[in-house]
Amino acid sequence: MNRLKLFLSTFKNNKTYKNYAENLNLKGDEAVFELGSGIGYLSRHIAKRLRDGGYLTCGDISDDSADMLKTMLRKYNNVNFCFGNIRRMNIECEIYDKLILNDCLVNLSKSERESYLRFLLSLLKTDANIYVRQPISSQDGISSSEVRQLMRELGLKEVNYEFDKISKQTVYLATFKRNT
User: What is the spatial order of strands in the sheet that 55-60 belongs to?
Assistant: First the structure.
């Protein structure tokens, strides 16, 4: 990819992720877990908004982009990192206020999705919000109906949703809460 295209895609991603982070309604003191941090496009906008004791844990099932992510977030001292199979890590339960699933469900096999999400739900406080940001595709990815079905099976209800068109991709944006 030439430099101009790379710059333009980074600029476009920056605006998209900045707007998404703004819509998370962060007060600044929350504990946030983001699965699917990648190289940190969204993570840095979240970390910027967390202060007053708030912190971000960036998680990714792959450590391919770990170095780039750590470099992108090096100026924030309120960020932790988890790479690989997070189900095997010793992470404290019931401490997170928000869970963000950022373009990660498609990277988990269908058989792994439920167990990964059950583990992540154990990390959340009872009244936590779960945010899904997932590009959808019926060909090689995951559909919004599959995401909704998975969340229902986990005892979550969809509070709101929208579809956004980013470049040529349709992105499903939704907020879920536990059924009470």
Answer: 79-83, 55-60, 31-35, 96-102, 124-135, 169-178, 156-166
